[in-house]
Amino acid sequence: MQNKEITVSLNWVKSLLLFAEQQGCDRALILKKSGLNSDVLDKVHRLTMDQTVRLWGACIDETADPFFGLHMGEKVRPSTFHIVGYTLMNSANLSEAFDKLHEYQRLISDGGVFQRVPVAKGVWIIYHPRPGVLPFFYHQIDAVLAAVLAFSRWVSGELFSPIEVSLKREAPVDWSEYLRVFAVKPSFSSDFDGILISHEMLDHPLLEADEELREVHEQHAKQRLRELKSTSRMSDQVTLILQNHISDQEAGRAFVANKLGVSEKTLQRKLSEEGQTFQGLYNQLRKKLALDYVSDTSIPLTDVATMLGFSDPSAFYRAFKRWTESTPGDYRELTKG
């Protein structure tokens, strides 16, 4: 859904500008081409998503680099994400770090949501973009996934490779840069954007693991998140939490209310004020993800029920038939072309 209120942290924006400058671009010219005043970064804490997209467009034009996002993302370090980066860096392992990323990602950007999808070989870290009015450049997706891998390598001290990389974008004529950055050829023209990390790497201890420091940084992050949430729609917050925990059968109304720090009664009241219900949002998200997963032939149909938090495959099949008047198998065949 289009949302003009989606915003992005200046830490990410400044990293984007800095990288463009390092490639020889003129900062003032990029801001001008983006329609931004030269002093805007000193006056606000966040930019709108559409302002950020225009900034990306100017950087891409000025660098003329077809892999600009990929190159920018691979330079990411924990300090790029400020308090969120430090919280992640002091986590016990990558698995805990990704849990914290899910919890505090809005401090970096509202422009997307991460989802963990466990499969036999590991866990998919999937990125779902949430654009404003302007569509994302593929560079933005490249930057996010490259940043996830670069950050993971940095904090783990291991130059590991993901098991798989999935990208919605069409394959470029020359995909060697993707192979260099990810150390594996991505599957292009896929149904989702994500990287698959092994269970072994997710359990790998981090170099700077420190529970006391993590708790200190996390308290700061919680306060920043409370300030940001105070201006956000409740329905958007609920959807973000559900998307992060959709495979968890316990992710019901009480679970989400606890995550938001409100009572179930308050949650219901605020959703009602926005013309929404918890069950309605839950069903909408489940249906959307079900259509995405069933359309993706790389995901076994037998895994989809678990990925969506259904108690058993038959419950999923009944729900899918109700949504589409088709079985998952028939729907996959119809969407193959």
From TrEMBL:
The protein's name: AraC family transcriptional regulator
Segments forming domain HTH araC/xylS-type: 236-334
SUPFAM superfamilies named in the record: Homeodomain-like
One term under GO cellular component: cytosol
Keyword list, A-Z: DNA-binding, Transcription, Transcription regulation
Pfam family, one: Arabinose_bd
Alphabetized GO MF terms: DNA-binding transcription factor activity; transcription cis-regulatory region binding
Top-level lineage group: Bacteria
